[in-house]
Inverse folding.
């Protein structure tokens, strides 16, 4: 009898009817002879309603984060009770546990706590008594008993962390897509579902805009070696298995292509090339809670250099604002230039480590299609470029084809 | 610096705006130099929505009671977070505590648990640190950590039990009426607010239909000697103080008149007057979860007697149904007679213990007004009669005047 941890997101449990569907799937797993721990999120829309209430009672003020966690955690608590009831009404024996009851201990950083320890004795006891355990995602408690929430992607993290703590045989992340695709099917119609992907590839795909899961949960899975499957709660299709890389994975040069639109580029020109300059720039940006991606700086020949980076288009105004007072410190001729309407394109694959020429092949294919590359940044298993947003869809299709992901032209140098 | 426990019901916290009003009142108390523990209920309507969700996910089935408690307790948890946030946004320092966090321990009877113990160390710690404590009413936890709810009137009970546990100087129950009245002002326009009432009188008023509070919370207050004030959250009027009886109370013969409409009378005639008969009748009724009030049996001369009792009109059909199979056991000539459209009228006062003739005065006044009495039942400090529902309002006005409650004619025999 194997032990399976499942996770169902807010859309999957968004209505009473969907909760019954989820309950049926859980029951099926149970009836196939497995022990089941099912992690559920708040019903879609519930969290937004709670945030609205919080805004209303506090006027213009900022709700206390400690109380925000007490408030938001009711969302998952509602779902666990309803899911357990639904299962029990179907003749199963299900028990709900909040994060605190399940022994999920966190630090005290409210609204974005980190799991520090899991004591799964209550989960084991319930499983041993023959119950299906329905566990609240996204939440935990501090050693002193305060309620905490884990922030974005928290329910995935709960599932993966609990799978590690109880040494589950399998962890299944149910979502509204069939798995991880070689590219966004809305952009590349012949994108294919990936059967198996390594943690590192999944992380690079996620950080490049393929938001099937938050990076945080994937990082946790990698750290503790938790194999998990991403699959749809709406059909019976097999999903994508995320696991340690293995030999066969290397034979594929590029696992997938990811894209991220609505980006903007900021270039600071005429910057003195000396220690501390980059720190001042990105310190100011990070103090404003802006997320910076792709940072590019070229070697300087004259002691004066340019630094470029990308931000979300919506953050561009704020970025210019916080950098204005810093400009004077950077050099007498420092100036700032900003451009919106750009997009990021990445090719990801652990296979590129053992194949040279991937970058050259990428740039050549884009050039052949008449697509101009603005910035380039690389990691060991990813190459990212920025292009004009108007050309990003075409660029993705070109990449998808160039690296044989459509199953038409397989190319490896 | 005195310690005050306040309780605000579901209507008082029914909207974000009302929560802000409640927060203002709590803050006022704090700024007057008191330490405050405020117990809050679920926002009006929230519990009904949760019950509806539970019904939907379970189809026709009955939701598991353990899970019902996990579900319902989210209602108060939402209110404590919102109330604490509202206070913090006003510059106060407030901390929310769930029943479990506040050390409210109960037995394991889900949906109607009893408080078995309170360990208020966390409440004390928060108060000592200078916080206002916002406590979830209606809920607790078992020693094993399961979430429980206290059933109807549970938030009043939480407030009174916590007031006892922390040895509060005052407990204030805020509601949507100004206090306890000598009679229902909708029936008797010159009914007056009672300044001070004993626990026993309050209990008798409650059990006779004046549902300002559930009897259960009053019983608890009596047992532990918790003085409390019932007052309105909508204005600044002083309320009614509920406390131990004192000498001055005895000078008032009748404290108040209470009435309860929509009652029905069931009479079982031709019953053998032997041990076990009443047990069989009321066993059957109680197995069906019907609440029986006023039970009247007269002495028998022939070995055959009649037994009458009242039930809520809505339960009459069910009562007849469950009694039908019992009838044959009661005697060869046993028959059942039922009558709806009746009402109960009670006069309550600890003063009647030291005054004879109260019953005679009551019956005479009703007779003078042409009101026929159907059943009579008395306790040490209460006399209850049933009359036709069509005459109950008039009967209440007659009583109110006869016992000088309107301040016109003071009569004592």
């Amino acid at each position: 009898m194997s032990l399976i941890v499942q996770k169902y997101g807010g859309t999957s449990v968004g209505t009473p009817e969907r909760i019954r569907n989820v309950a049926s799937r859980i029951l099926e797993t149970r009836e196939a002879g497995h022990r089941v721990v099912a992690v559920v999120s708040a019903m879609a829309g519930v969290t937004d309603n709670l945030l609205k209430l919080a805004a209303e009672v506090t006027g213009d003020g900022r709700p206390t984060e400690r109380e925000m966690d007490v408030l938001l955690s009711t969302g998952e608590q509602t779902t666990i009770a309803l899911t357990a009831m639904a299962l029990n009404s179907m003749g199963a024996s299900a028990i709900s546990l909040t994060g605190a009851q399940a022994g999920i201990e966190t630090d005290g950083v409210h609204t974005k706590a980190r799991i520090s320890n899991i004591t799964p004795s209550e989960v084991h006891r319930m499983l041993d008594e023959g119950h299906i355990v329905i566990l609240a995602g996204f939440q935990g408690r501090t050693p002193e008993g305060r309620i905490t929430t884990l922030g974005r992607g928290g329910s995935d993290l709960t599932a993966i962390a609990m799978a590690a703590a109880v040494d589950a045989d399998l962890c299944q992340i149910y979502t509204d897509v069939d798995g991880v695709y070689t590219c966004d099917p809305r952009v590349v119609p012949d994108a294919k579902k990936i059967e198996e992907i390594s943690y590192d590839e999944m992380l690079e795909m996620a950080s490049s805009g393929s938001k099937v899961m938050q990076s945080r949960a994937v990082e946790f899975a990698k750290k503790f070696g938790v194999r998990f499957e991403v699959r749809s709660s709406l059909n019976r299709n097999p999903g994508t298995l995320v696991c340690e890389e293995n030999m066969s994975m290397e034979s594929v040069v590029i696992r997938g292509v990811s894209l991220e639109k609505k980006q903007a580029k900021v270039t600071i020109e005429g910057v003195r090339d000396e220690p501390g300059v980059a720190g001042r720039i990105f310190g100011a940006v990070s103090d404003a809670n802006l997320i910076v991606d792709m940072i590019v700086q070229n070697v300087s020949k004259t002691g004066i250099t340019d630094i470029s980076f990308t931000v979300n288009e919506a953050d561009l105004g704020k970025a210019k604002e916080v950098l204005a007072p810093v400009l004077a410190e950077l050099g007498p001729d420092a100036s700032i230039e900003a451009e919106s309407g750009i997009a990021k394109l990445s090719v990801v694959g652990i296979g590129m480590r053992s194949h040279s020429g991937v970058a050259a092949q990428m740039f050549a294919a884009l050039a052949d299609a008449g697509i101009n590359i603005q910035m380039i940044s690389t990691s060991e298993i990813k190459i990212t470029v920025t292009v004009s947003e108007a050309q990003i869809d075409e660029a993705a299709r070109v990449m998808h084809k160039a690296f044989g992901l459509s199953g038409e032209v397989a190319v490896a140098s």
About this structure: Residues 408-413 of chain A have pLDDT under 50 and may be disordered. The CA atoms of residues 115 and 224 of chain A lie 13 Å apart.
